[in-house]
Amino acid sequence: xKSYLSLIPISARMHRRQNRMxxxxxxxxxxxxxxxxxxxxxxxxxxxxxxxxxxxxxTMQDMAGTTxxxxxxxxxxxxxxxxxxxxxxxxxxxxxxxVAQRTRFFGMMRCIGxxxxxxxLFVRLEALNWCRTAIPTGVVLGTAASWAACxxxxxxxxxxxxxxxxxxxxPTGIASGSIMGVLTVLxxxxxxxxxxxxxxxxxxxxxxxxxxxxxxxxAGTRFLxxxxxxxxxxxxxxxxxxxxxxxxxxxxxxxFLSFSVLVDCxxxxxxQLSSTPDxxxxxxxxxNSVDGTLAENLRHIDGVGQVYGRRSAFGLPMxxxxxxxxxxxxxxxxxxxxxxxxxxxxxxxxxxxxxxxYGDSGCVLAVLSEDSLLEPGDxxxxxxxELEIAGLLKYDLFSSDGSAGDTVTLxxxxxxxxxxxxxxxxxxxxxxxxxxxGDETVEKVRQAVPDQYAFxxxxxxxxxxxxxxxxxxxxxxxxIIALVAALNIINSISMxxxxxxxxxxxxxxxxxxxxxxxxxxxAEAFTYACSGYATGCAAGLLLHRxxxxxxxxxxxxxxxxxxxxxxxxxxxxxxxxxxxxxxYGPVKRVCQxxxxxxxxxx
Length: 602
What we know:
It contains 18 helices and 9 strands. It is an alpha+beta fold. Strands 2-3-7-4-6-5 form a 6-stranded mixed barrel.
């Protein structure tokens, strides 16, 4: 052996099993950054292809000035910073655990003359040695994942993503992933390297560098079994470690709650209503002049899914029981399918009874301004006809911003509308096509529509593809946060247990069995989990509420904040499951630990 650095590949082979988690963390970070920047690059290429069809001589400077060019790479850079931060936490925790399990090795190196600087260099080079296999693996997986995502966008989402490249190789993605991998490892290895350099040669030869703090009072065992009390005592006695572990849990919860706001934001930006038509027919002359028999004719065309229409009457006189003065209202009819969609999309306020609106019932739904005093069950009069308000809509479907104006809008069934106004024709006839219907079906519908009606193809205005892509990205990132949280929890608990190897060996030596050891470690882990969950939820809910107000309520007046009970339950189940999974490995290692030396079994 010419140099102590020759020990690095030898150590890597000797501790291949223990290094799997660290390698997984590095691969995961490189994979994410490579996939994100490759997808951003493919998006830019898709935009370039689209613009070249319209403009010749397009340069990269022109591409940089487009909205997509100014959006994709900054978003990718922001996500990479978040991944860097999460990756440093994961890899640092993993290397810390690795160092804690090899304190005897570093102590022996100090005993034979290795300096603190050499120990630090050794740990950093050892971490970089892992990059030789982790970075290429992460780059390959990230590129393959971007190909799969591009294929999904092109063949499943289609629409505006129909020109995205399928098997593009991005030098930007590869370089970004590689640089991020090296940078993350160097930053993450800093603290563990310094920790390894501080191992005392005297204490390290015993196999563990953990020095317990003085015990001022015994763990309470009045209400809990001894192993549970000891586990909780271990968690709360080391305040610095408790704060670090609590912060580790809380950070993941805060990130999850913060990014969950984006799901609501996407739904408000691009609402996907079940009643959105692919085609619509209206009368050039206006009014309710579209023949009702046309709807029945269109339903018999192959490829047509739903045909439904609306009638409208504006400026009708209306009175309420509280106010005898006459005010103006607009009355719009919804067919049965249209009414079904209101309930399906959750557009009705609590207490609404839409079942009372169907048929010639004399009941209507209302869209009211915030200062209106009308409630479900109230009576109104249009002319001499008495109507009951069966429910209220959450926002105005017929305004651009969702806010109701001064005029009350009422929604009635077709039968009720015809009885009140005498009009049986439609002002608007809407058609939804089957999923597999193509241009041939559209042409058949066009030919069936008389010339006096205006025919409109709305398929190009659909935002379903973009909405699906955004949701895919948001849920994908939430999944990433969940995986980061799981790895972080596993690493943190493993590191905490590794630091107490000597204590666990002593407890086994005085008669504690494997079941009690498992109970003690589980109690310690779930103490960290409970503390982190409480802290993360408290801080995360405040940030969740602030982000909702900034991103949604400021721009969408109809938005109403709802407590994220479902998200908190998902987080609780996830934290509990991750903690339970994190306990398994350390318990197995402790049970294999030598009672005499306190070293881990192989």
